[in-house]
Specification:
7 strands, 5-stranded parallel β-sheet, alpha/beta, 51% helix, Rossmann fold, DNA polymerase, domain 1, 12 helices, single chain, two-stranded antiparallel ribbon
Length: 213
């Protein structure tokens, strides 16, 4: 069976890697010696919204560190803060079998993720499924655009076309958030909500991609 798909994009969080949002808040709160609800407000709510600005590429690591210390009125080391923000992931072991099969046949694939500098650096260092199996990526903090904004999907389509010459209708994307799946479909890509690796493998097989799972 000839595959309709020439390129596959995977989301990172809740697809390749599991993560715990509350762990981030608790670790940063412990480091800064501040209440968790105060830290959550600083990182994820207006007017500061520091973590989301970090993921959008509006702040780099140094700027994020300085802004957090200023807003939280505390002094913490940059490396300590980056670790507290980033050490929240663990591998989705079920998906490794699918990635291994795709890598074995050199199937073109990349990561398409809303993420920040700290999360990406941590993931690459600690998880071979990210750092070794993926040579290409489209990341929100580098593109300065977050899913489901259309700009980041156009960057993904351009990358896939540059590598394989494929069109949007020959690209498959999986993500754990329905709004991101819908936006990918609007951009012309095949896209499916990630529920389980078994379902993902079946979705790929239906499109002629040779995987088991």
């Amino acid at each position: 069976m000839t595959s309709d798909i020439k390129f596959i994009f995977f989301d990172m969080g809740k697809v390749l890697l599991e993560f715990d949002h509350q762990r981030l808040i608790d670790q940063v709160a412990a480091l800064a010696k501040k209440p968790g609800d105060e830290v959550e407000q600083i990182l994820f709510q207006s007017p500061h919204d520091l973590e989301n600005r970090f993921e959008r590429g509006e702040l780099n690591g140094d700027q994020f560190h300085r802004a957090f210390c200023e807003v939280a009125d505390c002094e913490v080391g940059k490396d300590d803060l980056m670790l507290a923000v980033a050490d929240i992931f663990w591998l989705n072991t079920s998906i490794v079998h699918v990635l291994t099969q795709l890598s074995y046949v050199n199937f073109p694939m990349a990561i398409l993720s809303n993420t920040c500098e700290a999360h990406w650096d941590f993931a690459v260092r600690h998880f071979a499924a990210v750092g070794q199996m993926f040579r290409q990526r489209v990341l929100s903090y580098e593109e300065k655009s977050m899913k489901p904004d259309g700009k980041i999907y156009q960057a993904a389509i351009a990358l896939a076309k540059e590598i394989t010459g494929c069109e949007p209708g020959e690209i498959f994307f999986t993500d754990d958030r329905q709004e991101n799946v819908d936006a990918a479909r609007q951009a012309g890509m095949h896209a499916e909500l990630y529920v389980s690796t078994r379902e993902l493998a079946e979705q790929l097989r239906q499109r002629g991609v040779p995987v088991t799972g």
